[in-house]
Amino acid sequence: MIRAAVDVSPLAQTRAGTARHVRGLLGALAGRAGLDVEERSYGGDGRLASVARDTWWYYAGLPRSARGLDLLHCTTFRGPLRAPVPFTVTLHDLALVRHPELFPRWHRLSGRTGMGRVARAADHVFAVSEFTRQEAVELLELPAERVTVIGNAIEPVFSPDGPAAEGDYVLAVGTLEPRKNLRRVADAAAHVGVELRVVGAPGWGGVETPGWVGEVADEELAALYRGARAFVFPSLYEGFGIPVLEAMASGAPVVTSRGGATAEVAGDAAVLVDPLDVEAIAAGIEEAASRRDELRTLGLRRAGAYSWGAVADAVERVWRELT
Q: DSSP characters for 138-163?
């Protein structure tokens, strides 16, 4: 029996990709023979709680809470520099290191330097994509053999069956932050002459966009995917890109960035474009709409290749090697 403490703090902070990863992993680990998972968290979504987590809890409170167990699993790059048991960390992307200019000052101060120190201190590191694994080896100078790709997956609500939102529109999903490239998405939608709808939490960097509807429930998001002329995700940098999978699983044709993690996730089931070229994004929207049936078939097949069970299998294998 492996008794593992798992950091679930992202569930108190966000509904975005990191929280989706935590929920999916916990669900797939639940009830597994020979595993006893104990959740660990501190504080809520306020700034004071965030500061306390980043400056004290991850370094002292979290590892202390794992005493007497077999292992500590950190679901993000935030974790201790030492722990009384073997510990793992999870890298969702290295945007803070590759593009620190895209983040608020506090994120840069608290995260950029700590990421490498924590990852190098960990007994093993998980990466959500091969792209992120390669970034970790290059930017954090981690030995390749200490980094395992585990992937991501999506929830059953994202399927082609169900109601579709009405209207002729393209959809974008993401926190309002600079790397989501929403200004160029809006310009491309205007170039094509189609309505833009944007789902996501408010963020930073003064990002505003036409068509922003805020955060919505997953059932409404699935309906928006189904009804969209195309899903447009030309992000400047991602570690995986869960919305790409959600859109494919919902039957939407996808336009995303050439190169990087989103191209890895999409494979041949999306239209790949230069995210810095508005005209290329606009042309991608038109191509995706014209190839809707073909991309729908390819996308459903691609999304079906990912599962939370496979993610949990990869995590469990490493846990057993460490204990």
A: HHS---GGGEEE------TT-SSSS-
- CB hemisphere CA count around 282 (13 angstroms): 15
CATH of the domain spanning 2-153+307-322: 3.40.50.2000
Domain 169-304: CATH superfamily is: Glycogen Phosphorylase B; (3.40.50.2000)
Rg (CA), the chain: 20
Domain boundaries defined on the chain = 2-153+307-322, 169-304
3-state secondary structure of 264: helix
pTM: 0.93
Amino acid at 62: L
- pLDDT digit string (tens) for 153-187? 999 999 999 999 999 999 999 999 999 999 999 99
Contact yes or no for 172/188 (Cβ under 8 A): no
What pairs with residue 7 in β-bridges? 40
Q: What's the CA gap between 115 and 91, in Å, rounded?
A: 9
Q: Do domains 2-153+307-322 and 169-304 have the same CATH topology?
A: yes
